[in-house]
Amino acid sequence: MNILLTGGLGFIGSAVVRRLIATTGHVVVNVDKETYAASHAALDTARGHARHIHVKADICDAEAMAATLAQWQPEVVMHLAAESHVDRSIDGPAEFIRTNVVGTQVLLEAARAYWSALPAPAKGRFRFHHISTDEVFGSLETLDAKPFDEHTPYDPRSPYSASKAASDHLVRAWHHTYGFPSFVSNTTNNYGPWQFPEKLIPLVSLNALEGKPLPVYGDGANIRDWIHVEDHAEALCLAALGAGQPGGTYCIGPRQERSNLEVVKAICAVLDRLRPDPAGPRERLITFVKDRPGHDFRYAMDPSGAEKLLGWTARYDFESGLEHTLRWYLDHEAWWAPIRAATYAGQRLGQAG
Fold first, then answer.
1. Known catalytic residue: 191?
2. Which of 95, 154, 320, 348 has its Cα between 20 and 30 A from that of 167?
3. How far apart are CA 139 and CA 145, in angstroms?
């Protein structure tokens, strides 16, 4: 089987590529525009593999998408390509609308035209899996509010989440209007190896290793549900390769809620144990900074539906997953140090408003 996957040089996409190459015999056609957060190194052993094909292309390019589908004849499309950082969406929403909304529409139309021309058996097997976020559901305003599930109404609060909500709606509209065999999965905050160091866990971890301030928005009380990227990749592969059904929605999560301040303190504790700082415990570096505009209080996901339908549960608890991640960053300075030096040094984003 050929699988066309968009965004396979990104953090989550590369984890899916690695898993597909390691655990299946399928060919993975990896379409990626190669923006600032793309990393060929993140493909690890999949890079250069005979069953991994890299196509440098923009999902907004209709001709390129049609040509790639025609050439490689996939049975499955996994759509992960997206702009994904809330802070960057606050500073520059236009690129999020272009990639996440327009790009999804272009890809859907190219895939629909390709699917429509398939012979009946292949047409029945084809699936389009759109990967999204829990942020489309808005903000849970209390600690005891019911977690999001497949029936939660959409209420996006940031340019990023609004753009992802729009793309989710497009995917469902193509299914209901055209009978296109598409489905959606939504997930919680991902963390793990190869994450570009603008997100909370790698940013704080690398700052802590370098003795720099550890920025915490507001009072640090905002809560997220944290899933290790390898757990997420496993669930996505199960959904895409048979368990996911047209018109379905799958809320993928680990039940691992933590406040931002708890996450930062946990990072400090693990690094203090693995690589002590002669200057003292790293919690001394925690610095409370002005909150992000429109900062949602809490995200949490009820994954029971997806667990049952996909036959999946998260393997990592937060403590073991975090230590696994931090050990990886300690061992891979050769990857992240050049990024910190030349691409993104940890500067504050998302202060507009």
1. no
2. 348
3. 10
| List 114, 160, 191, 299, catalytic entry | 160
In the three-class reduction of DSSP (H, G, I as helix; E, B as strand; rest coil), residue 129 is classed as strand
Q: Which helix (H) or strand (E) holds 305?
A: helix 304-310
The active-site residue, picked from 32, 87, 135, 150, is 135
Identity at 103, one-letter amino acid code: G
Per residue in 265-280, pLDDT tens? Answer: 999 999 999 999 999 9
Asked if 134 is an active-site residue, the reply is yes
Dump the DSSP string for 196-235: -TTSHHHHHHHHHHTT--EEEETTS--EEEEEEHHHHHHH
The verdict on pTM exceeding 0.90 is: yes
Active-site residue flag, 329: no
Encode pLDDT of 33-85 as tens digits: 999 999 999 998 899 899 999 999 999 999 999 999 999 999 999 999 999 88
